[in-house]
Amino acid sequence: MIDRYTLPEMKRIWADENRFQKWLEIEIYACEAMAELGQIPKEAVAVIRKKAKFEVERINEIEAVTRHDVLAFLTNVAENVGDESKYIHMGMTSSDILDTALSMQMVEAADLIIKKLQQFRETIVTRAREHKYTLMMGRTHGIHAEPVTFGLKLALWVAEMERNINRMNQGREVVRAGKISGAVGTFANIHPKVEEYVCAKLGLEPAKVSTQILQRDRHAEYMTTLAVIASSLDKMATELRNLQRTEIIEVEEAFAKGQKGSSAMPHKKNPITGERIAGLARVIRGNAMAAMENVALWNERDITHSSAERVIIPDSTILLDYMLTKFIEIMEGLVVHEDNMKENIAKTLGLIFSQRVMLALVNKGMLRETAYQLVQQNAMEAWRTKTDFKSFLFADDEVTVNLSREEIEELFDYGYHTKYVDYIFKRAGIE
């Protein structure tokens, strides 16, 4: 991900310094466990803990020759530790530290994303409360249906973000696993208590069974969780982009002083941040597909997953963190045009009350099919002639024989469509 778009906390998680530091912690804890088991001298562990360090530039120099990152790291650490370094990495394989450290990084990234999801949820809650009763047109198939409120639209998003927070917590738990079980996961050259000790120190759960690696269904679940969350943001951004269309213009992204919308057309104010979010969601979904491809590996392991993971996992967490940050900015600055919402409701000349008229006729004893046809006939004529729907009802004897003028007037009450807004908000926990 481009550095200028990478937020500092997430960038730190995926930096070489953090990755190598985690490798070092794993190796030191493993030495401590072996000393507890009497496999290496405790005095050696004291020296290792005191002297063990690394330099990223030196590791890169060594790796240019060895073409093996873990061996380069171990060589650099050994240069600093001296003779006691012979006890480091005993009975371990590269993936013991690679996979365990990756789990730690993924947990750290998940914690940042969960925090940002909670912040995003609260931002939506604030705007939902503000527009709890702001009437707007509800649309199905892009066509006027019946009125909703903008607050209800946002309440829907609040509930979805709560599900996404739960999903991310589950994804975090799935990858919160470590393995220190040796070359093919049999513990042949390292005692199981070493794994238990290291994982306990790092806040991880030992994998119940492993091969040379942690199984990639864990990573696939984590990555598909990121993709689901990104898809939610895509959905929300698409909705706001749609509502910003010139023909609708019910909401719009804030437009900063000095901002330009088009190199050719000075009048343009485009929903560029929402479009960016929608586009980046495609990248995360594509990365999730790569993660699922990584589940099927040869025998006890191959490394086809490794090169892909070095790209897709950091990039996806960085992207999602960025997308959430930008969407929070969108929601905080979102301009809501309540006047346009009212004007758009009026465009269908009262047709949005057609269902209520039909139900009123049914309640008077008319067959539903008959009532449907009667209301539809008047509705279509009103739409064809661009005439107020109510006036056709007043002039239809089949309607007025069942409904008085006062009863018809009462059917065109917007409050009918908002009577359960409080109930829905309460159920959503955003009173």
Structure description:
- It is a single chain.
- This protein is mainly alpha-helical and 431 residues long.
- It has three domains: 1-90, Fumarase C, Chain B, domain 1 (Orthogonal Bundle), CATH 1.10.275; 93-342, Fumarase C, Chain A, domain 2 (Up-down Bundle), CATH 1.20.200; 351-411, Fumarase/aspartase (C-terminal domain) (Ribonucleotide Reductase Protein R1, domain 1, Orthogonal Bundle), CATH 1.10.40.30.
- The chain is built from 18 helices and six strands.
- The chain has helices at 8-13, 16-36, 42-51, 56-66, 69-81, 94-130, 150-175, 192-202, 217-243, 272-293, 304-333, 338-346, 354-363, 368-385, 389-395, 397-400, 405-411, 421-427; strands at residues 135-140, 143-149, 177-178, 205-206, 251-252, 335-336.
- A two-stranded antiparallel ribbon has the order 1-2.
- α8 links the parallel β3 and β4 (205-206).
- The protein is elongated.
- The mean pLDDT is 94.
Going by CATH, the architecture of the largest domain would be: Up-down Bundle
Class derived from helix and strand content: mainly alpha
Following the backbone from N to C, one meets helices and strands in this order, namely HHHHHHEEHEHEHEHHEHHHHHHH
Contiguous low-pLDDT stretches (5 residues minimum) are none
Number of domains: 3
- Percent of residues in helices: 55-70%
Distance between the termini: 39 Å
Widest sheet: strand order? 1-2
Counted beta strands: 6
Specify the biggest β-sheet: 2 strands, antiparallel
List the helices and strands and how they pair.
Elements: H1 8-13, H2 16-36, H3 42-51, H4 56-66, H5 69-81, H6 94-130, E1 135-140, E2 143-149, H7 150-175, E3 177-178, H8 192-202, E4 205-206, H9 217-243, E5 251-252, H10 272-293, H11 304-333, E6 335-336, H12 338-346, H13 354-363, H14 368-385, H15 389-395, H16 397-400, H17 405-411, H18 421-427
Parallel strand pairs: 3-4
Antiparallel strand pairs: 1-2, 5-6
Helix pairs in contact: 2-3, 2-6, 2-8, 4-5, 6-7, 6-11, 7-9, 9-10, 9-11, 10-11, 13-14
